[in-house]
Design goal:
Length: about 475
Amino acid sequence: MTQPPSGPPPTPAVPPVPASRQAPRSGASVAVPGPPRRTAWAEGVDRLRAAAVTEPGRLRIIGAVLVALVLAFGAVTAWQVSDRAAAAEAVVARSQPLSADAASLYRCLADADTTAAGAFLAGGDEPPELRERYERDIRTASLLLTRAAANSDASDPGYAEIVKLNRELPVYTGLVETARANNRQGLPLGGAYLRHAGERMREELLPAAEALHRFETARLREDHGAARSRPVLALLTGVVALAALGWAQRRHHLRTNRVFNLGLLAATVATATTLLWLIAAHGLARSGLDDSDRYGARSLQVLNEAWTGVLRARGDENMTLVARGGGAEYEESYQAGMREVAGDPVAGERDGTGLLARALALADDAEGRTPVRDALRATDRWREHHATARALENDGRYDDAVALVVGPGRDTARSAFDAVEAGLAEAVEHEQREFERAAERGRDALDGLPAGAGALAVLGAVGVVLGIGRRLSEYR
Protein backbone atom coordinates (compact mmCIF):
# COMPACT_ATOMS: atom_id res chain seq x y z
CA MET A 1 0.00 0.00 0.00
CA THR A 2 1.34 3.29 -1.04
CA GLN A 3 1.97 6.03 1.57
CA PRO A 4 1.06 9.66 0.66
CA PRO A 5 3.97 12.12 0.60
CA SER A 6 4.61 13.71 3.90
CA GLY A 7 5.85 17.16 2.59
CA PRO A 8 4.80 19.74 -0.04
CA PRO A 9 5.43 18.90 -3.69
CA PRO A 10 8.75 20.11 -5.17
CA THR A 11 8.77 23.49 -7.02
CA PRO A 12 9.78 23.18 -10.70
CA ALA A 13 13.02 25.00 -11.74
CA VAL A 14 12.44 28.35 -13.53
CA PRO A 15 15.16 29.65 -15.92
CA PRO A 16 16.65 33.10 -15.08
CA VAL A 17 15.13 36.08 -16.83
CA PRO A 18 17.63 38.04 -18.97
CA ALA A 19 18.57 41.42 -17.61
CA SER A 20 17.22 43.10 -20.73
CA ARG A 21 13.76 41.62 -20.01
CA GLN A 22 13.65 42.22 -16.28
CA ALA A 23 11.09 44.67 -15.12
CA PRO A 24 12.54 48.05 -14.39
CA ARG A 25 12.93 49.23 -10.89
CA SER A 26 10.54 51.71 -9.49
CA GLY A 27 11.30 55.20 -10.88
CA ALA A 28 13.57 54.07 -13.78
CA SER A 29 12.73 55.25 -17.32
CA VAL A 30 12.06 52.74 -20.08
CA ALA A 31 14.22 53.16 -23.27
CA VAL A 32 11.93 52.80 -26.26
CA PRO A 33 13.84 52.23 -29.53
CA GLY A 34 13.04 54.95 -32.11
CA PRO A 35 13.31 55.01 -35.90
CA PRO A 36 16.86 54.76 -37.30
CA ARG A 37 18.67 58.12 -37.66
CA ARG A 38 19.12 59.43 -41.25
CA THR A 39 22.02 61.39 -42.69
CA ALA A 40 21.75 65.01 -43.69
CA TRP A 41 22.44 64.00 -47.30
CA ALA A 42 19.51 61.54 -47.32
CA GLU A 43 17.19 64.15 -45.80
CA GLY A 44 18.31 66.71 -48.35
CA VAL A 45 17.67 64.29 -51.20
CA ASP A 46 14.19 63.61 -49.85
CA ARG A 47 13.42 67.32 -49.60
CA LEU A 48 14.73 67.85 -53.13
CA ARG A 49 12.63 64.96 -54.43
CA ALA A 50 9.58 66.32 -52.67
CA ALA A 51 10.22 69.80 -54.06
CA ALA A 52 10.74 68.49 -57.58
CA VAL A 53 7.16 67.29 -57.82
CA THR A 54 5.86 70.85 -57.43
CA GLU A 55 6.31 73.66 -59.92
CA PRO A 56 7.78 76.15 -57.40
CA GLY A 57 10.28 73.53 -56.33
CA ARG A 58 11.24 72.86 -59.91
CA LEU A 59 11.68 76.56 -60.56
CA ARG A 60 13.98 76.91 -57.57
CA ILE A 61 16.13 73.98 -58.76
CA ILE A 62 16.28 75.39 -62.31
CA GLY A 63 17.23 78.82 -60.97
CA ALA A 64 20.02 77.41 -58.81
CA VAL A 65 21.47 75.44 -61.72
CA LEU A 66 21.32 78.44 -64.06
CA VAL A 67 23.00 80.74 -61.53
CA ALA A 68 25.75 78.16 -60.99
CA LEU A 69 26.34 77.79 -64.74
CA VAL A 70 26.41 81.51 -65.43
CA LEU A 71 28.81 82.21 -62.54
CA ALA A 72 30.97 79.22 -63.48
CA PHE A 73 31.23 80.52 -67.05
CA GLY A 74 32.34 83.93 -65.85
CA ALA A 75 34.87 82.48 -63.40
CA VAL A 76 36.38 80.03 -65.89
CA THR A 77 36.59 82.73 -68.56
CA ALA A 78 38.32 85.16 -66.20
CA TRP A 79 40.76 82.44 -65.10
CA GLN A 80 41.71 81.15 -68.55
CA VAL A 81 41.90 84.57 -70.18
CA SER A 82 44.03 85.90 -67.30
CA ASP A 83 46.49 83.05 -67.84
CA ARG A 84 46.72 83.78 -71.54
CA ALA A 85 47.02 87.52 -70.99
CA ALA A 86 49.87 86.91 -68.54
CA ALA A 87 51.62 84.68 -71.08
CA ALA A 88 51.16 87.32 -73.81
CA GLU A 89 52.58 89.95 -71.47
CA ALA A 90 55.55 87.65 -70.78
CA VAL A 91 56.16 87.32 -74.53
CA VAL A 92 56.24 91.10 -74.98
CA ALA A 93 57.95 92.19 -71.76
CA ARG A 94 60.17 89.29 -70.71
CA SER A 95 60.87 86.23 -72.84
CA GLN A 96 61.33 87.98 -76.20
CA PRO A 97 63.55 90.76 -74.79
CA LEU A 98 65.63 88.15 -72.95
CA SER A 99 65.94 86.10 -76.13
CA ALA A 100 67.01 89.23 -78.01
CA ASP A 101 69.50 90.05 -75.24
CA ALA A 102 70.99 86.55 -75.47
CA ALA A 103 71.43 86.97 -79.23
CA SER A 104 73.04 90.39 -78.66
CA LEU A 105 75.33 88.89 -76.04
CA TYR A 106 76.56 86.31 -78.53
CA ARG A 107 77.15 88.98 -81.14
CA CYS A 108 79.02 91.23 -78.71
CA LEU A 109 81.35 88.41 -77.70
CA ALA A 110 81.98 87.33 -81.29
CA ASP A 111 82.50 90.92 -82.41
CA ALA A 112 84.90 91.58 -79.52
CA ASP A 113 86.97 88.57 -80.57
CA THR A 114 86.94 89.65 -84.20
CA THR A 115 87.85 93.24 -83.31
CA ALA A 116 90.68 92.13 -81.01
CA ALA A 117 92.18 90.09 -83.83
CA GLY A 118 91.81 92.99 -86.26
CA ALA A 119 93.48 95.41 -83.86
CA PHE A 120 96.30 92.92 -83.31
CA LEU A 121 96.90 92.66 -87.05
CA ALA A 122 97.19 96.44 -87.27
CA GLY A 123 100.37 96.22 -85.20
CA GLY A 124 101.51 98.05 -82.10
CA ASP A 125 99.73 101.26 -83.08
CA GLU A 126 96.25 99.79 -83.18
CA PRO A 127 93.53 102.02 -84.65
CA PRO A 128 91.62 103.85 -81.85
CA GLU A 129 88.27 103.02 -83.41
CA LEU A 130 89.00 99.29 -83.15
CA ARG A 131 90.04 99.62 -79.53
CA GLU A 132 86.89 101.60 -78.74
CA ARG A 133 84.77 99.01 -80.49
CA TYR A 134 86.35 96.16 -78.54
CA GLU A 135 85.84 97.91 -75.21
CA ARG A 136 82.24 98.78 -76.14
CA ASP A 137 81.56 95.12 -76.96
CA ILE A 138 82.96 93.97 -73.62
CA ARG A 139 80.97 96.60 -71.69
CA THR A 140 77.77 95.66 -73.49
CA ALA A 141 78.38 91.95 -72.91
CA SER A 142 78.91 92.59 -69.18
CA LEU A 143 75.70 94.64 -69.01
CA LEU A 144 73.71 91.94 -70.80
CA LEU A 145 75.10 89.28 -68.47
CA THR A 146 74.06 91.36 -65.47
CA ARG A 147 70.56 91.73 -66.87
CA ALA A 148 70.31 88.03 -67.62
CA ALA A 149 71.43 87.15 -64.09
CA ALA A 150 68.85 89.55 -62.61
CA ASN A 151 66.05 87.82 -64.55
CA SER A 152 66.98 84.23 -63.67
CA ASP A 153 67.59 82.04 -60.66
CA ALA A 154 69.36 78.78 -59.95
CA SER A 155 66.40 76.72 -61.18
CA ASP A 156 66.48 78.20 -64.69
CA PRO A 157 68.14 76.00 -67.33
CA GLY A 158 70.32 78.88 -68.55
CA TYR A 159 71.62 79.85 -65.11
CA ALA A 160 74.68 77.60 -65.38
CA GLU A 161 75.60 79.25 -68.68
CA ILE A 162 75.35 82.71 -67.10
CA VAL A 163 77.68 81.61 -64.29
CA LYS A 164 80.11 80.18 -66.83
CA LEU A 165 80.10 83.36 -68.92
CA ASN A 166 80.71 85.52 -65.86
CA ARG A 167 83.66 83.29 -64.92
CA GLU A 168 85.23 83.05 -68.36
CA LEU A 169 84.86 86.62 -69.60
CA PRO A 170 87.55 88.10 -67.28
CA VAL A 171 89.90 85.26 -68.27
CA TYR A 172 89.40 86.08 -71.94
CA THR A 173 89.92 89.82 -71.52
CA GLY A 174 93.09 89.13 -69.49
CA LEU A 175 94.53 87.02 -72.31
CA VAL A 176 93.68 89.71 -74.87
CA GLU A 177 95.39 92.38 -72.79
CA THR A 178 98.49 90.20 -72.43
CA ALA A 179 98.56 89.63 -76.19
CA ARG A 180 98.14 93.35 -76.77
CA ALA A 181 101.01 94.23 -74.41
CA ASN A 182 103.34 91.74 -76.12
CA ASN A 183 102.31 93.00 -79.54
CA ARG A 184 103.15 96.58 -78.60
CA GLN A 185 106.63 95.45 -77.70
CA GLY A 186 106.97 93.52 -80.94
CA LEU A 187 107.19 90.16 -79.17
CA PRO A 188 105.96 87.15 -81.17
CA LEU A 189 104.51 85.69 -77.97
CA GLY A 190 101.55 88.04 -78.42
CA GLY A 191 100.19 85.92 -81.26
CA ALA A 192 100.20 82.83 -79.06
CA TYR A 193 98.27 84.64 -76.33
CA LEU A 194 95.74 85.93 -78.86
CA ARG A 195 95.24 82.47 -80.33
CA HIS A 196 94.72 81.11 -76.81
CA ALA A 197 92.18 83.86 -76.15
CA GLY A 198 90.41 82.98 -79.41
CA GLU A 199 90.29 79.31 -78.45
CA ARG A 200 88.68 80.13 -75.11
CA MET A 201 86.17 82.32 -76.88
CA ARG A 202 85.24 79.58 -79.34
CA GLU A 203 85.34 76.68 -76.91
CA GLU A 204 83.91 78.26 -73.75
CA LEU A 205 82.27 81.65 -74.16
CA LEU A 206 80.48 81.38 -77.50
CA PRO A 207 79.02 77.87 -76.82
CA ALA A 208 77.74 79.11 -73.45
CA ALA A 209 76.20 82.20 -75.07
CA GLU A 210 74.64 80.03 -77.77
CA ALA A 211 73.17 77.68 -75.15
CA LEU A 212 71.75 80.65 -73.23
CA HIS A 213 70.13 81.96 -76.40
CA ARG A 214 68.69 78.51 -77.05
CA PHE A 215 67.18 78.35 -73.56
CA GLU A 216 65.70 81.84 -73.81
CA THR A 217 64.27 81.07 -77.25
CA ALA A 218 62.66 77.91 -75.87
CA ARG A 219 61.09 79.98 -73.07
CA LEU A 220 59.79 82.42 -75.68
CA ARG A 221 58.19 79.57 -77.63
CA GLU A 222 56.64 78.21 -74.42
CA ASP A 223 55.13 81.59 -73.49
CA HIS A 224 53.99 82.13 -77.06
CA GLY A 225 52.25 78.74 -77.12
CA ALA A 226 50.56 79.37 -73.76
CA ALA A 227 49.33 82.79 -74.90
CA ARG A 228 47.73 81.48 -78.09
CA SER A 229 46.24 78.24 -76.70
CA ARG A 230 42.44 78.03 -77.00
CA PRO A 231 40.35 78.48 -73.81
CA VAL A 232 38.45 75.26 -74.45
CA LEU A 233 36.97 74.90 -70.96
CA ALA A 234 35.62 78.46 -70.98
CA LEU A 235 34.08 77.98 -74.43
CA LEU A 236 32.40 74.71 -73.43
CA THR A 237 31.09 76.20 -70.18
CA GLY A 238 29.70 79.18 -72.08
CA VAL A 239 27.91 76.99 -74.63
CA VAL A 240 26.39 74.85 -71.85
CA ALA A 241 25.24 77.93 -69.90
CA LEU A 242 23.72 79.49 -73.03
CA ALA A 243 21.96 76.25 -73.95
CA ALA A 244 20.57 75.89 -70.41
CA LEU A 245 19.23 79.46 -70.48
CA GLY A 246 17.62 78.81 -73.85
CA TRP A 247 15.99 75.63 -72.56
CA ALA A 248 14.67 77.43 -69.46
CA GLN A 249 13.07 80.18 -71.55
CA ARG A 250 11.49 77.68 -73.91
CA ARG A 251 10.06 75.81 -70.91
CA HIS A 252 8.73 79.11 -69.56
CA HIS A 253 7.07 79.87 -72.90
CA LEU A 254 5.46 76.44 -73.20
CA ARG A 255 4.01 76.57 -69.66
CA THR A 256 2.87 80.20 -69.57
CA ASN A 257 2.49 81.09 -73.24
CA ARG A 258 4.56 84.19 -72.56
CA VAL A 259 7.21 85.11 -75.10
CA PHE A 260 9.83 86.64 -72.82
CA ASN A 261 11.00 86.45 -69.26
CA LEU A 262 12.97 89.67 -68.91
CA GLY A 263 15.29 88.37 -66.21
CA LEU A 264 16.24 85.23 -68.12
CA LEU A 265 16.51 87.26 -71.34
CA ALA A 266 18.96 89.65 -69.65
CA ALA A 267 21.01 86.69 -68.36
CA THR A 268 21.07 85.22 -71.87
CA VAL A 269 22.24 88.51 -73.38
CA ALA A 270 24.99 88.84 -70.75
CA THR A 271 26.17 85.26 -71.30
CA ALA A 272 26.07 85.55 -75.09
CA THR A 273 27.99 88.83 -74.92
CA THR A 274 30.70 87.22 -72.81
CA LEU A 275 30.93 84.24 -75.17
CA LEU A 276 31.15 86.40 -78.29
CA TRP A 277 33.69 88.68 -76.59
CA LEU A 278 35.77 85.65 -75.64
CA ILE A 279 35.71 84.26 -79.19
CA ALA A 280 36.54 87.61 -80.80
CA ALA A 281 39.24 88.59 -78.31
CA HIS A 282 40.96 85.23 -78.46
CA GLY A 283 40.79 85.25 -82.26
CA LEU A 284 42.41 88.69 -82.42
CA ALA A 285 45.02 87.74 -79.83
CA ARG A 286 45.85 84.53 -81.65
CA SER A 287 46.10 86.39 -84.97
CA GLY A 288 48.45 89.00 -83.53
CA LEU A 289 50.66 86.39 -81.87
CA ASP A 290 50.76 84.30 -85.04
CA ASP A 291 51.82 87.37 -87.00
CA SER A 292 54.51 88.13 -84.43
CA ASP A 293 55.90 84.65 -84.94
CA ARG A 294 55.52 84.50 -88.72
CA TYR A 295 56.68 88.01 -89.57
CA GLY A 296 58.96 88.71 -86.62
CA ALA A 297 60.31 85.86 -84.51
CA ARG A 298 61.15 83.51 -87.41
CA SER A 299 62.90 86.25 -89.36
CA LEU A 300 64.77 87.36 -86.25
CA GLN A 301 65.93 83.82 -85.59
CA VAL A 302 67.37 83.44 -89.10
CA LEU A 303 68.88 86.93 -89.12
CA ASN A 304 70.54 86.37 -85.75
CA GLU A 305 72.01 83.09 -86.99
CA ALA A 306 73.28 84.85 -90.13
CA TRP A 307 74.78 87.70 -88.11
CA THR A 308 76.62 85.38 -85.72
CA GLY A 309 77.83 83.34 -88.70
CA VAL A 310 79.19 86.49 -90.31
CA LEU A 311 81.02 87.43 -87.11
CA ARG A 312 82.55 83.97 -86.79
CA ALA A 313 83.67 84.11 -90.42
CA ARG A 314 85.28 87.51 -89.87
CA GLY A 315 87.08 86.19 -86.81
CA ASP A 316 88.34 83.19 -88.79
CA GLU A 317 89.55 85.52 -91.54
CA ASN A 318 91.55 87.61 -89.08
CA MET A 319 92.98 84.58 -87.27
CA THR A 320 94.10 83.14 -90.59
CA LEU A 321 96.46 86.11 -90.90
CA VAL A 322 97.42 86.08 -87.22
CA ALA A 323 98.58 82.47 -87.65
CA ARG A 324 101.01 83.58 -90.42
CA GLY A 325 100.86 80.62 -92.73
CA GLY A 326 99.53 78.18 -90.12
CA GLY A 327 95.86 79.09 -90.35
CA ALA A 328 94.53 76.38 -92.65
CA GLU A 329 91.86 75.37 -90.13
CA TYR A 330 90.70 78.97 -89.81
CA GLU A 331 90.46 79.25 -93.59
CA GLU A 332 88.36 76.10 -93.78
CA SER A 333 86.12 77.43 -91.03
CA TYR A 334 85.76 80.75 -92.88
CA GLN A 335 84.69 79.06 -96.12
CA ALA A 336 82.21 76.78 -94.32
CA GLY A 337 80.74 79.73 -92.42
CA MET A 338 80.31 81.84 -95.54
CA ARG A 339 78.58 78.98 -97.36
CA GLU A 340 76.19 78.66 -94.41
CA VAL A 341 75.49 82.38 -94.40
CA ALA A 342 75.37 83.22 -98.11
CA GLY A 343 75.19 79.92 -99.96
CA ASP A 344 77.15 79.23 -103.10
CA PRO A 345 79.67 82.02 -103.79
CA VAL A 346 78.61 82.23 -107.42
CA ALA A 347 74.82 81.79 -107.25
CA GLY A 348 74.36 83.56 -103.92
CA GLU A 349 70.79 84.73 -103.53
CA ARG A 350 69.69 83.10 -106.74
CA ASP A 351 70.11 79.50 -105.65
CA GLY A 352 68.00 80.06 -102.53
CA THR A 353 70.55 78.57 -100.15
CA GLY A 354 72.13 80.18 -97.14
CA LEU A 355 70.73 81.98 -94.14
CA LEU A 356 70.54 85.33 -95.91
CA ALA A 357 68.44 83.83 -98.70
CA ARG A 358 66.10 82.34 -96.08
CA ALA A 359 65.86 85.71 -94.34
CA LEU A 360 65.02 87.33 -97.68
CA ALA A 361 62.21 84.81 -98.24
CA LEU A 362 60.79 85.43 -94.76
CA ALA A 363 60.79 89.23 -95.09
CA ASP A 364 57.22 90.33 -95.82
CA ASP A 365 57.82 93.87 -97.10
CA ALA A 366 60.32 95.95 -99.03
CA GLU A 367 61.62 97.59 -95.86
CA GLY A 368 62.67 94.17 -94.60
CA ARG A 369 63.99 92.82 -97.91
CA THR A 370 66.14 95.77 -98.95
CA PRO A 371 68.77 95.55 -96.15
CA VAL A 372 69.04 91.79 -96.62
CA ARG A 373 69.74 92.24 -100.33
CA ASP A 374 72.34 94.87 -99.44
CA ALA A 375 73.98 92.38 -97.07
CA LEU A 376 74.05 89.73 -99.79
CA ARG A 377 75.74 92.06 -102.26
CA ALA A 378 78.27 93.13 -99.63
CA THR A 379 78.95 89.46 -98.90
CA ASP A 380 79.91 88.91 -102.53
CA ARG A 381 82.39 91.82 -102.36
CA TRP A 382 83.78 90.49 -99.10
CA ARG A 383 84.43 87.09 -100.63
CA GLU A 384 86.27 88.67 -103.53
CA HIS A 385 88.51 90.71 -101.22
CA HIS A 386 89.17 87.64 -99.08
CA ALA A 387 90.23 85.62 -102.11
CA THR A 388 92.57 88.42 -103.16
CA ALA A 389 94.06 88.67 -99.67
CA ARG A 390 94.70 84.91 -99.59
CA ALA A 391 96.50 85.15 -102.92
CA LEU A 392 98.64 88.05 -101.66
CA GLU A 393 99.63 86.13 -98.53
CA ASN A 394 100.49 83.04 -100.54
CA ASP A 395 102.72 85.21 -102.76
CA GLY A 396 104.60 86.43 -99.70
CA ARG A 397 102.95 89.86 -99.60
CA TYR A 398 101.73 89.54 -96.04
CA ASP A 399 101.53 93.27 -95.27
CA ASP A 400 99.44 93.88 -98.38
CA ALA A 401 97.11 91.05 -97.37
CA VAL A 402 96.71 92.52 -93.87
CA ALA A 403 96.01 95.97 -95.33
CA LEU A 404 93.31 94.53 -97.60
CA VAL A 405 91.64 92.63 -94.75
CA VAL A 406 91.75 95.19 -91.92
CA GLY A 407 92.62 98.42 -93.72
CA PRO A 408 90.33 101.46 -93.41
CA GLY A 409 89.81 101.99 -97.15
CA ARG A 410 86.46 101.83 -98.93
CA ASP A 411 87.44 98.89 -101.14
CA THR A 412 88.63 96.40 -98.50
CA ALA A 413 87.36 93.28 -96.78
CA ARG A 414 86.79 95.37 -93.66
CA SER A 415 84.50 97.83 -95.47
CA ALA A 416 82.57 94.97 -97.07
CA PHE A 417 82.19 93.26 -93.70
CA ASP A 418 80.97 96.53 -92.17
CA ALA A 419 78.39 96.79 -94.96
CA VAL A 420 77.17 93.26 -94.26
CA GLU A 421 76.82 94.10 -90.58
CA ALA A 422 75.01 97.34 -91.33
CA GLY A 423 72.48 95.54 -93.54
CA LEU A 424 71.89 92.85 -90.93
CA ALA A 425 71.53 95.41 -88.14
CA GLU A 426 68.92 97.32 -90.14
CA ALA A 427 67.03 94.13 -90.98
CA VAL A 428 67.06 92.95 -87.34
CA GLU A 429 65.83 96.33 -86.13
CA HIS A 430 62.97 96.26 -88.65
CA GLU A 431 61.90 92.70 -87.78
CA GLN A 432 62.12 93.53 -84.07
CA ARG A 433 59.64 96.36 -84.59
CA GLU A 434 57.39 94.06 -86.60
CA PHE A 435 57.44 91.50 -83.80
CA GLU A 436 56.70 94.02 -81.07
CA ARG A 437 53.79 95.59 -82.96
CA ALA A 438 52.13 92.26 -83.68
CA ALA A 439 52.74 90.82 -80.20
CA GLU A 440 51.42 93.96 -78.50
CA ARG A 441 48.34 93.83 -80.71
CA GLY A 442 47.72 90.26 -79.61
CA ARG A 443 48.28 91.11 -75.94
CA ASP A 444 46.03 94.18 -76.04
CA ALA A 445 43.15 92.16 -77.54
CA LEU A 446 42.68 90.42 -74.17
CA ASP A 447 42.62 93.64 -72.12
CA GLY A 448 39.48 94.04 -70.00
CA LEU A 449 38.04 90.62 -70.77
CA PRO A 450 38.68 88.96 -67.35
CA ALA A 451 37.04 91.84 -65.46
CA GLY A 452 34.28 92.15 -68.06
CA ALA A 453 33.51 88.43 -67.91
CA GLY A 454 33.21 88.60 -64.12
CA ALA A 455 30.90 91.62 -64.22
CA LEU A 456 28.69 90.13 -66.93
CA ALA A 457 28.49 86.85 -65.00
CA VAL A 458 27.22 88.69 -61.92
CA LEU A 459 24.67 90.56 -64.04
CA GLY A 460 23.58 87.29 -65.62
CA ALA A 461 23.16 85.63 -62.22
CA VAL A 462 21.07 88.60 -60.98
CA GLY A 463 18.95 88.31 -64.11
CA VAL A 464 18.31 84.63 -63.43
CA VAL A 465 17.33 85.33 -59.81
CA LEU A 466 14.93 88.10 -60.85
CA GLY A 467 13.45 86.08 -63.68
CA ILE A 468 12.85 82.96 -61.58
CA GLY A 469 11.68 85.09 -58.65
CA ARG A 470 9.03 86.68 -60.88
CA ARG A 471 7.66 83.25 -61.74
CA LEU A 472 7.72 82.10 -58.12
CA SER A 473 5.72 85.17 -57.07
CA GLU A 474 2.83 83.91 -59.19
CA TYR A 475 2.43 80.95 -56.81
CA ARG A 476 2.08 83.02 -53.66
